[in-house]
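Q: Got a minute? One more chain.
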Amino acid sequence: MKKIIIFSFVLMLITSSFSFPVLADEELPDVNYSLDKGQNNRSYDELYNEFLDYGYTPADADYHAKFDILVTKLEEEEIQVDLDNEEELSDSYVRSHPREFKTRVLGKDKKALKKAVSSNQALFNGAVDIEKAKKRVNKIRDEHGAEIGSQIRIDYPDGSTARFLGTVEKEDSTEEEVQTHTIIAGPWDQSVKMSSSGAEAVDNAIYAARTYFDYSSAAGTARVNDTYRFRLKFNGYPNDASKWSSHYETDAGATSSSGVVSIDIENLSNRVGTKATGRYQYLQGYTDARFKVSKAFSAQAYGLSISVEANKTWRQYAITEVQGYGTVHHWAGQFR
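A: Always. Here it is, folded:
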């Protein structure tokens, strides 16, 4: 029986902050969080519960739900926020006064708004830093001699976060550099391979492999997750894994966004292959979302790791690959 261990890392990385100009000079509208709606016409309660489902604390879920409604209100009234002459708050203030900072953002304090939309170190550095954390996960896996479900969270000084999670469950019904390609090539130009994970091998059992990748900051969230279901068969050779095979069952995904980030296009079910045998054959499934930045703020102000203007886009992928003998690999992908 394989033993599964989940490890979580919280890293504090000190880097410099950035400030960028944004647009127009208009008064910000009042928001009624009980009546006004967020992206996709979702109510406060719907947004709040969604964030809770994704593992946010009640306080963070409340903040992100309200900020999403605020940004949607700005877009509806075609307001582009002028923060050009505002002084940006420091990282140290954000770290030492997180609740006060978010209260100021929701209160439309322009200094706080500028900090929220101009700092997102998770988007600058998240993929590379997750790859570095992966090396530590692999070291612990080797020391324990066990398979590891990959769970990594990186908290940055500016308050932004990158999270990655990979798990494998049997269903009850039965190197340091960033890699440029998954084992099976896809539409991404950058991908981060996480530790493989697995569960107790059971003949003819169905497994659900879940891969989850998100960015979040005071300015918004962007997340993708993929659930790939496959059946593992021993094919009459219970003691010879080279003869085992994995068979595609279903692939389904989900995407979500909030704040200054919105979903432009989503592809929730993508797969390659229906059967793989042994060590050197693979199946693949992934969820793909193209995200864009609200026209209420310029993308430069949001601090994206790509040079785009408001309403321009980047793509994010949660990728799952299964070897023929049932080992699962989780990847986080980007296209920039």
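A: DSSP finds seven helices and twelve strands in the chain.
Q: Perfect, thanks.
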